[in-house]
Design a protein that fits this description.
heterodimer; A: Rossmann fold; nine-stranded mixed beta sheet; two-stranded antiparallel sheet; B: Mth169, Chain: A; three-stranded antiparallel beta sheet; 2 helices
């Protein structure tokens, strides 16, 4: 399976993402610059964290209009797995690939620490390797992770099981303790915690690795004969 | 040539954590009469006359980029000015 790590000016988790795929997962991966006009040949798209365009105006607001985003939308429509972490999540929200928006953390502080998450839905291409309701530890690092959507949308997210990860102890004030959601189809996941920073016990946790393994497993089942 | 002043604020229904902190700070400075603060953004755009309707252009710019309609509202004022 071949992954693209999209790099925007100001991305800073791209190297961790690349390392997770190449060294920990053992799959193919390439950096893709934001003005690239084709994502042909890639099976999975990863939008890393950071501060694209300095977070000017709103987080993700400017990156969302990068040339490559048209291709990311196409990949999402084609059903390819698209994962946005932290700033990547914010970009997916601004692009309308996921519903809702981000506000400043309730505390107004930048929060950088390991947090405990609950796997609310393990029936997705991103979470099949986890147990339902499993408790996992993955670090967060953000100033704007206070997820918001209106009541009607929240009901929809719940009804479709789109809330994939929740915080056990909400660090940022996000609605319904939401840490990660998918689109309706289930092939686009946005999450504030950083699974790419939790892929080896040496880093304090390897709980993020199963997320990447889930993507590969689901892709193999669909694309590789006798997988 | 037009100078367009755009104000972007969080929607009434959306909690504003910055505004809340500033309200608390003002209250602690003994301004008890302040019951709410909403923090927003102010932008000045200089726009040249074109064939397109100005209001249409501004509304398009605001909904596309300057404001996020999921959580923000915007309003604007237009002043005609002489080119420098």
């Amino acid at each position: 399976m071949k992954f693209a790590v999209i790099v925007f000016p100001g991305s800073n988790c791209d190297v961790d993402m690349y390392h997770s795929i190449k060294d920990e997962l053992g799959e193919e991966v390439e950096y893709v610059w934001h003005d690239t006009e084709s994502l042909e040949g890639f099976d999975g798209i990863l939008l890393p964290g950071g501060f694209s365009y300095g977070d000017y105006l709103r987080t993700g607001a400017i990156a969302r209009f990068s040339k490559v985003m048209k291709e990311v939308v196409k990949a999402a429509e084609a059903g390819k797995p698209v994962l946005g972490v932290c700033n990547g999540f914010q970009i997916l929200l601004e692009a309308g690939l996921l519903p809702g928006a981000m506000r400043r953390n309730e505390s107004l502080s930048f929060i950088c620490k390991p947090v405990e998450l609950i796997v609310e839905n393990n029936q997705t291409m991103f979470t099949a390797e986890y147990q339902p309701g499993e408790s996992i530890t993955i670090p967060v690092a953000h100033g704007e992770g206070n997820y918001y959507c209106d009541e009607e949308m929240l009901e929809k997210l719940r009804a479709n099981n789109q809330i994939v990860f929740t915080y056990q102890q909400n660090p940022n004030g996000s609605l319904a303790d939401i840490a990660g959601i998918t689109n309706e189809k289930g092939n686009v996941l946005g999450m504030m915690p950083h699974p790419e920073r939790a892929v080896d016990g040496l880093l304090g946790s390897a709980d993020g690795l199963k997320l990447f393994q889930s993507i590969v497993k689901s892709w193999r089942e669909a694309h590789v004969v006798n997988a | 040539m037009f100078k367009v002043k755009v104000y972007v604020t969080l929607r009434e229904s959306v909690l504003d954590p910055q505004g809340k902190a500033v309200t608390q700070s003002l209250n602690s400075l003994n301004y008890q009469e302040v019951t709410d603060v909403r923090i927003g953004k102010y932008m000045e755009l200089t726009i040249e006359k074109s064939e397109r309707d100005l209001d249409e252009v501004i509304n398009e710019i605001c909904t596309k980029l300057l404001a996020n309609p999921v959580i923000e509202d915007y309003r604007y004022e237009v002043e005609e000015c002489v080119a420098q």
